[in-house]
Structures are given as structure tokens and as C-alpha cells.
Write a structure and sequence with these properties.
The protein is an alpha+beta fold and 233 residues long. It has eight helices and six strands, in the order E-E-H-H-H-H-E-E-E-E-H-H-H-H. The strands form three sheets. It has a two-stranded antiparallel ribbon. Strands 3-4 form a two-stranded antiparallel sheet.
């Protein structure tokens, strides 16, 4: 939170390198922590609370004593597990026998999606990502619209067949053309809805609105990426 300066040793000049103004501080990422009373006994803030308190008070001797107490308790617990043959099973980490390293079980290494990802947070030790699910919502809504259109077409075709049967003699019903137009591509539509989505898009205002919104977001992201590249250069 403090200013950082660069001092030139040759000529004694000083240059401002970092100045955390009030505007910069307002833009900082918010720090999310678990409330102290909700923490378990082995979470760092609770586990090391007495050591931290002693350090804040400037009592180095007390801090060292509290640290020794913690470490001794851990040694005793490990000794008891070893004597009883109990395996230590970490809750959030797993051991890689090949590299002999410990890895976080719930690590998320996928690239950040600016169009769908809102925030990443930890809950009960598990890393989670809050998403907009725009693509899923659009896909579901698109499917609903297409299914509605298919239902209307089928209902219309059924009504046409009924009228054709009632208006024409039975022996001519199969050879007489109906005045109604029965869609021949209903089956094709259900098999490949993407092929016919362009035609249905104009029939649903919500679909068009969300697609335009996605296009605006995509355009804004591309603009930000270009700006970042310019800054990098």
C-alpha cells in the first residue's frame, strides 16, 4: 500500500515507480476470507492465532514459545499415527508418486473465459467458478423455440389432414391435394436444428436480443485484448 521509488545510485536521482492512489485502491480485488468463528482448528488463521498475536505485540519470545507448542503437538500426532498404523489422508491435497509432489485436488487449470466466467472463489476448500451460463441458456432457449415450431408445424399438418379427410371422399383422400401446406422438413428439423435455426431466429425476439448481447460482449473483449497487446508492446 506504500509508494515505491527507484533510486539511481550513480547520480542520486529518485523516480516514482508505484503510487497506490485512492483510485488504484478502489480497483483492487476484494479479499474474501472465511469468518474466524467458522474456521476449523487446522486453518492457518485459527491455528496460528497465538503466534500472530505475539508477533503483533512485538513479543518475539512469546511467539517462539507458541510456535514450539504447535510444532510439538504436530510431532506427537504424527508419532501416534505411526505407532497405530493410521495413514494420514489429506482432505484437499493428493500425492503424486512420480514427481513426489503434493497437488491441490480441485485445481482449475482451464483458461479463463471472459464471456462466461464471473468470479472464482473457494468454498469449503474447493475451488469453484461462478459462471453466466449464457451459452447453455442460449442453447436451451434455442431448443425450446425449435421444439415449439416443430409442434406448431405438426399440429398444422394434423389439422390439414383432418380437414382433407372430412371434406373429400375416402377413396380420393390419398390422391387429393390439400389446400394446407404440410412441412416436409419437420423430421429433418428435429435431426439438425442448427440448419434451421437461422429461419427461426427472426421468430423469437429474446433469441435475437441475447445473440446481439453476446456479439457486443465479444466485441468489447476483443477491444480489451487489443489494448492489452498494445500496452504489452
Amino acid at each position: 500500500d506504500g509508494e515505491v521509488h527507484i533510486n539511481e545510485s550513480k547520480n542520486g536521482n529518485t523516480e516514482m515507480f508505484w503510487n497506490p492512489t485512492s483510485e488504484v485502491r478502489r480497483q483492487r480485488l476484494k479479499r474474501h476470507i472465511v469468518l474466524f468463528e467458522e474456521q476449523t482448528d487446522f486453518e492457518s488463521e485459527r491455528l496460528w492465532q497465538h503466534v500472530t498475536s505475539a508477533i503483533n505485540k512485538g513479543d518475539q519470545h512469546k511467539a517462539t514459545q507458541e510456535k514450539f507448542v504447535l510444532e510439538e503437538e504436530q510431532r506427537n500426532a504424527a508419532r501416534e499415527r505411526r505407532e497405530s498404523g493410521t495413514d494420514w489422508k489429506p482432505l484437499l491435497f493428493q500425492h503424486d508418486a512420480v514427481t513426489n509432489e503434493w497437488h491441490y485436488k480441485y485445481e482449475d487449470l482451464r483458461p479463463w473465459d471472459p464471456l462466461n466466467d464471473i468470479a472464482q472463489f473457494e468454498k469449503n476448500g474447493v475451488l469453484q467458478t461462478m459462471e453466466r451460463h449464457l451459452s447453455t441458456r442460449m442453447s436451451n432457449h434455442k431448443t425450446t423455440c425449435i421444439n415449439n415450431q416443430i409442434t406448431r408445424h405438426k399440429r398444422s399438418a394434423k389439422d390439414c389432414r383432418r380437414r382433407k379427410t372430412s371434406d373429400q371422399p375416402s377413396n380420393h383422400s390419398q390422391n387429393t391435394e390439400s389446400s394446407c401446406s404440410t412441412p416436409e422438413s419437420v423430421q429433418e428439423l428435429s435431426d439438425d436444428d442448427g440448419k434451421y435455426w437461422a429461419g427461426f431466429e427472426s421468430l423469437c425476439a429474446q433469441c435475437g436480443k441475447e445473440m446481439n448481447h453476446l456479439k457486443e460482449i465479444h466485441s468489447a473483449v476483443l477491444s480489451l485484448q487489443r489494448a492489452q497487446q498494445d500496452i504489452h508492446r
